[in-house]
Design brief:
Blueprint (H helix, E strand, L loop, with lengths): L9 H7 L1 H6 L2 H23 L2 H12 L1 H6 L2 E4 L14 E9 L2 E10 L7 H75 L5 H32 L8 E4 H18 L3 E6 L4 E4 L1 H17 L5 E9 L2 E8 L32 H11 L3 E7 L3 E9 L10
Parallel strand pairs: 5-7
Antiparallel strand pairs: 1-3, 2-3, 4-6, 7-8, 8-10, 9-10
The protein binds adenosine-5'-diphosphate.
Length: about 400
């Protein structure tokens, strides 16, 4: 007879063969029926129970009959279902095997000498065999459940990426449309109004110029991310003082911070020479400090540089809106914008992905700490020039 429940049928066939059954006593047969029933139930147990729980259940239930005879029943290898008897005079021990090999023993102990019979041994072997098969099934089903979970996780990730891409397309369209509408509006007004005083024309052209700059930044970010993905982003590495680049960015962005009434300061604790492409590293700090200003309405943005453990560290701290803890792991993902979940500010979700890509290229790292409503700290770590390359793998 072939059990429909398992792929592991040989052992069951062995047990159910007529010859074998005939050799078993009534007591053994009774237990065998119980075990067999449990073994089938094992498929149900498999769904929700851990390996050792199935094993314990099987052994516990099927040893009820044995218990009546034996003093103690123990499954070794951690799955104890009873206590060891102190200095037993009778011991009956049977290995539990799965396809993986030996996984434990069912051992019966009794204080009385010569207590266990040949029938007991057959019976306990039947239990051990069934336990082995059920455990094997459990292992396989656990593997399938794990595979299934992995597929579900993958599927959820793919859905999330699809959603992020679609959010990205609408963000980028919006980001491009706003300055374009402004450029078009001001240009049309200048063309239509022949009497416009020259100072107003100059003011409008200034606005058109600023809005075009915004377009250039977005388009450059898009091109950079696309180049980074295809491994074609160019880097010109040479040893340079890091503080010079950071200071330049701070000076450039100070006007932007002051326009929002925010303080922006740079504290250089240590000087640091780093092998870098200054244009790219400048892009890193423009993004981080730009974000700090963008997401802060009150207080200040502080940039601090120091050296420790063969690395230069630059922390950009703000007193802004902060980031929810559960969203923190995603902020460096391409296209990811917390705004899509929480708030609404301009942006494409490409800045931090670029930051991470550039910093990685420089053999460094970037991490973030944040508290919602209190502010965020983004810290960039870069190896000092001449420091050995980290071992790969
Ligand atoms: P974006 O173009 O949207 O600013 P980024 O990749 O630069 O894209 O940032 C991803 C997201 O991380 C932002 O949309 C924002 O929600 C969040 N974020 C980044 N920096 C800060 C910060 N200093 N404070 C609060 N949130 C931030």
């Amino acid at each position: 007879m072939r059990s429909p429940h398992t792929g592991v049928t040989d052992e069951v066939d062995l047990l159910t063969s007529q010859k074998h059954i005939e050799q078993l006593s009534e007591e053994v047969l009774d237990l065998y029926r119980q075990v067999n029933l449990l073994y089938r139930l094992g498929d149900v147990f498999n769904a929700g129970l851990e390996r050792h729980q199935i094993c314990q259940l099987l052994i516990k239930e099927s040893c009820k009959v044995l218990r009546a005879r034996a003093g103690r029943v123990v499954l070794d290898d951690g799955f104890a279902v009873g206590r060891r008897v102190e200095s037993p005079d009778s011991v009956l021990s049977v290995a539990v095997e799965t396809l993986q090999g030996h996984i434990g023993e069912i051992t019966l102990y009794d204080k009385r000498r010569g207590f266990f019979t040949a029938a007991d041994e057959k019976l306990i072997r039947a239990v051990a065999r069934q336990a082995g098969v059920a455990l094997e099934n459990s292992r396989r089903i656990a593997g399938l459940i794990e595979q299934n979970r992995a597929l579900e996780r993958l599927n959820a990730e793919l859905n999330q990426i699809a959603q992020m891409k679609s959010d990205f397309v609408s963000n980028v369209s919006h980001e491009l449309r706003t300055p374009l509408a402004s450029i078009k509006g001001f240009a049309a007004t200048i063309i239509d109004d022949h009497q416009m005083p020259p100072e107003v024309v100059r003011e409008f052209v200034g606005i058109i110029n600023d809005e075009s700059d915004k377009l250039v930044v977005i388009i450059n970010d898009l091109l950079d991310v696309s180049k980074m993905l295809s491994g074609h982003l160019n880097y010109q590495l040479a040893p340079r003082p890091l503080e010079r680049v950071v200071e330049e960015v701070v000076t450039l962005l100070r006007i932007q911070a002051e326009a929002k009434g925010l303080g922006l300061s740079f504290e250089r604790v240590d000087r640091a020479v780093v092998d870098m492409d200054p244009t790219r590293i400048s892009q890193v700090f423009t993004n981080l400090i730009g974000n700090a200003i963008k997401f802060t309405d009150e207080g200040r943005v502080t940039v601090r540089q120091w050296v420790a453990g063969g690395e230069a560290h630059v922390a950009v701290s703000d007193t802004g809106i902060g980031i929810r803890t559960d969203l923190l792991p995603h902020v460096f993902d391409r296209f990811y914008r917390v705004e899509n979940v929480v708030h609404t500010k301009e942006g494409t979700g490409l800045g931090l992905a670029l930051v991470r890509g550039i910093v990685d290229y420089h053999r460094g790292g970037v991490d973030v700490e944040s508290e919602e409503g209190r502010g965020s700290v983004f810290t960039v770590h870069l190896p000092l020039a001449g420091s050995p390359a980290p071992e790969v793998g």
